[in-house]
Amino acid sequence: MVKQKQKLNFRPATQEDLNFICEVELLPENSVFVGHDSLEKHRSCLSDPDCRYWIAEIQEVKQMTPNAAKNKVGFGILKGNTNPYKCMELYRIALNAHSRGYGSQFLHFLQNFTFQECRFHRLWLDVLTTNARAIHVYEKHGFIREGCLRECSKAHSGKFESLYIYAILSHEYIDLKF
Description:
By secondary structure, the protein is an alpha+beta fold. The chain has helices at 18-25, 28-31, 39-46, 102-117, 132-140, 170-175, and strands spanning 8-12, 51-58, 72-79, 87-95, 122-128, 144-154, 160-169. The protein has one domain: Aminopeptidase (3-Layer(aba) Sandwich), CATH 3.40.630. It has a seven-stranded mixed sheet with strand order 1-2-3-4-5-7-6, with helices on both faces. It is globular, with a radius of gyration of 16 Å.
């Protein structure tokens, strides 16, 4: 029997979501690959017109559970909303549930939002060269590796790490077959 993927709903994040965002950033399976910001920094960025915070939630067929936090599976942050050159950065995407297809659904939503709703030309991101799972998802969604920033980031361990730069252009996104 094949288990059907649960569909996700996406909504703008609110101040009430910030504790969830901080918790997801600090999960052991995320903290190795995902940066984290203080609650105060998130609060400030959430009110910045250049940033877009999104929450991904499981789409319930039945009534929502009394504790809506149980339905949240991740968050995404886009930066560059006011960029005059129409370049958006996928600043962060993180989930509290992995290997269920949620990352692909969320990334597809963020791409659609960037290119269809905002009419931007370019969506770019950086990713640790050691984050094979994320790299696989980005490449599956049409992102092209544009370069490598060698040993530009310092891990909690003190070790320097390298980042790949990936991007996708609006016409490349339109040509994808989902």
